Amino acid sequence: MIIDEESPLDIALRLAADEPAHRPDFYKKLLESTVYILGKSENQIEGAQTIAPGEKISIQNWEKNDGSPVIPFFSTLIKLQTILDKETSYLALPARSLFEITKGSSLVLNPKLKYGKEFFPNEIEALLTYNVNRLAEQRVTQKETQVLLGQPATYPSKMVESLTAFFSIRNNVKAAYLAMMHDPSQDEKPHLIVGIEVDGDYVQIIREAGVVAGDTNLNGEPVDLIRVDPNEQGLSKYFKRDVKPFYERSWGGKLKFVLGIGHA
To answer: What pLDDT score was predicted for residue 251?
Structure first.
């Protein structure tokens, strides 16, 4: 009897499926992992094999319900063997390498199993470039702009809950704030904005928080994310002076989150 124990990638996938706060860590773990595909190299041998640079490989495609092709890949060899009803050639290679050699294709992790994830070409491009599965649109204000700020009439509870969980596992996030913003010069209607106060490098935190916010903002509207700098005016001053943070880092924050005692 084959016992299918959870690999670190399997654990990351399960956590990400159950709670969006864990999705940035899943993508990071995936890019660090070895995965398994159905296929063979031109010099196929028995057992484990290292694919030489420039060596040609053939990768098996499956067909989705709509007739479009998709490349299946698996987190462990046991999971690959679980869905097969006959002996089939396979290869092991780094997930990052798989994404690089299959650019432009759709792939699906652990198809037909309880936990899986389909990856579309634009997601793969973002993963290879920024280690997250979506590219945020950057906006730079070239001149002083008047915007309208306030609190949302309908509180985005799920988004705030998941962002709180995410910030609680990022030690350099000090606080996070929520508001509605309307810039009449660029936007037809108001949208959510999240201000994040961060120690040190903030770029990757903004990218990862964007993944969590995008996956949990149930109305599908855009969410802006901005760095809050206590030494700056404008939006930073508004958040620090007029808005109570929905997340604040504290020594007991992580313990409170684990125990389910309100916000960290």
So the answer is: 52
> pLDDT of 68-83, one tens digit each?
999 999 999 999 999 8
Q: Which long-range contacts (CB under 8 A, 24 or more apart) does 111-116 make?
A: 111/62, 111/70, 111/72, 111/83, 112/83, 113/79, 113/82, 113/83, 115/10, 115/13, 115/14, 115/17, 116/13
Helix, strand or coil, per DSSP, at residue 40? strand
pLDDT, tens only, 148-205: 899 999 999 999 999 999 999 999 999 999 999 988 777 778 999 999 999 988 999 9
* Domain limits, the chain: 8-43+53-130, 148-259
DSSP state of 21: G
φ and ψ at residue 182, rounded to 5 degrees:
-130, 115
User: 8-43+53-130, what's its fold?
Assistant: Trna Endonuclease; Chain: A, domain 1 (3.40.1350)
Task: Give the other-Cβ count within 10 Å of 95's Cβ.
Answer: 22
Q: Report the alpha-carbon angle 69-75-80, nearest 5.
A: 65
C-alpha span between 257 and 255 (Å, rounded): 5
